[in-house]
Amino acid sequence: MDNELNGSELGTKEFWESSYNREIRNYKSHGDVGEIWFDESAQWRTIDWLLGKEKIDKEASRVLDLGCGNGMFLVGLANEGFNGDLTGVDYSPKAVELAQNIAQDKKLSITYKVADLTQPQDELGHFDVVHDKGTYDAVSLCPDNAKEKRALYLATVEKLLRTADSLFVITSCNWTEDELEKSFAEKFVKYYTIPTPTFKFGGKVGNVVTSVVFKRKKE
């Protein structure tokens, strides 16, 4: 990718540990689950597409949420009747702690684990749906070797998909659909674009966020 994002604290583990430590305190004090990245509408567009248009198997599919944060994406799937295997991972132990607390209080069977997605994660197994809402963005904002870490992240994602028909669903606010396609071209092919709200500026139409579904590139 020719363009690189400027490094930011949003790309550091320390920032997220501090943020989720604060959100754990707020949750325990007030029951506030905390911020939902890109707001709830982005989350529900993906859930509606998976369960509605794509009709993934609610009973048998395995879903992995990358950079799960407070875990509300998986909570949303569970609340919509998804009974398959739900797993969320995050490199912030505090995020995982918050997600576990929320799922436990809601009496939902969701597994959460600490995992650095720029490292191989063979022990996680393989999944029918791998979901990313903002995690690739955060990796891209890492102040140290962001380009290399993005490549390592994508190598990990590729191995987590069960088959060539498994879905990699990504929502980004930093990269356009064209940029994602170009960056992923070595390992993935675009399968579907989930419509997102558009805006018009200077005669051009753009999107605040981009949601794209990829499949693993066939040999």
Automatic annotation (TrEMBL):
Compartments it resides in: Cytoplasm
Gene Ontology annotations for the cellular component aspect, listed alphabetically: cytoplasm
Ranges in coiled-coil conformation: none
Annotated SUPFAM superfamilies: S-adenosyl-L-methionine-dependent methyltransferases (SSF53335)
InterPro entries, per database record: Efm4/METTL10, Methyltranfer_dom, SAM-dependent_MTases_sf
Principal location class: cytoplasm
Signal peptide: none
Protein origin, superkingdom: Eukaryota
A GO molecular function held by the record: protein-lysine N-methyltransferase activity
Annotated keywords: Cytoplasm, Methyltransferase, S-adenosyl-L-methionine, Transferase
EC number: 2.1.1.-
GO annotation terms (biological process): methylation
Domain Methyltransferase: 58-192
Family (UniProt): Belongs to the class I-like SAM-binding methyltransferase superfamily. EFM4 family.
PANTHER family (UniProt xref): EEF1A LYSINE METHYLTRANSFERASE 2, PROTEIN-LYSINE N-METHYLTRANSFERASE METTL10
Function, in words: S-adenosyl-L-methionine-dependent protein-lysine N-methyltransferase that methylates elongation factor 1-alpha.
Name of this protein: Protein-lysine N-methyltransferase Dere_GG24471
Organism name: Drosophila erecta
Gene (UniProt): Dere\GG24471
